[in-house]
Design a protein that fits this description.
The chain is α+β, with helices and mostly antiparallel strands. It has six helices and 18 strands.
Length: about 290
Amino acid sequence: MQLLKFKQVDVFTRKPFLGNPVAVVLEAQGLDGSEMQRISAWTNLSETTFVLPPSTAAADYRLRIFTPRAELPFAGHPTIGSAHAVLEAGIVKPKQGRLRQECGVGILELQVDGETLWLEAPPATDTALADADLAALEKALQANVKGLPCIINVGPRWLVAELNDAAGVGALAPDMQRLTDLSNKHSIGGVTVYGASSDGQSAVHVRSFAPAHGIAEDPVCGSGNISVAAYRVKTGQARGSSGSYTARQGMQLGRDGLVSIRIEGGKIFLGGSAVTCIDGTLRAQAGR
């Protein structure tokens, strides 16, 4: 029986029980991949992370990230939440205000700016959706979309679609089986939608659906928001003064969170705060 240090952290909020929770298993080098996957299914959160020693001196720590069904090369809210956890636990200290995290997409740099952690996102690539698949997407969402949706790849692959406004985003009641079928067909994590907001707090409202990964709706999705930012850059919506904005997500799940986006020199930066809600130990037994 292993006793592992464990934290559950809410991300994209400074208030407990809002934002998006991530389970963080600290000093997890005694676990193999199958044990990590089993623990991730047990936590039943959108992601669970496992903190390990780095494999290179260029990084401060290594992170493995799992959904209830699969390992991910990168994800936004687990990265920010895990950075918060390792700082709080004293496992690492920032060097000149920066941390370097090793994960499946390589080494990512994070900036510690007071209570906000900023992540430089991996470069994004995009693939336009075919007309036939656009019809399938609208049937799955049970709503019409604006423009031509794209599959955005930032490690996780999201199909990003714009709706008319935030009210339309909030009213969505997708057909989860159709979304699952579409996700499996295109080997994507799921579908992220957004619409312009007039709430005085944010530029856009966002929702992310990943039923193929066992996550009907992700409360506040970091990689989904990075993908929206990449799509907005591609379509000319995010430039000049609109290159920095706040997105709001999670209201429909009672997890209202705020995501900061900064776009500089062609790079996308994801920012957010985090708060620890559970701090203790996890009992893990190999081979069971």
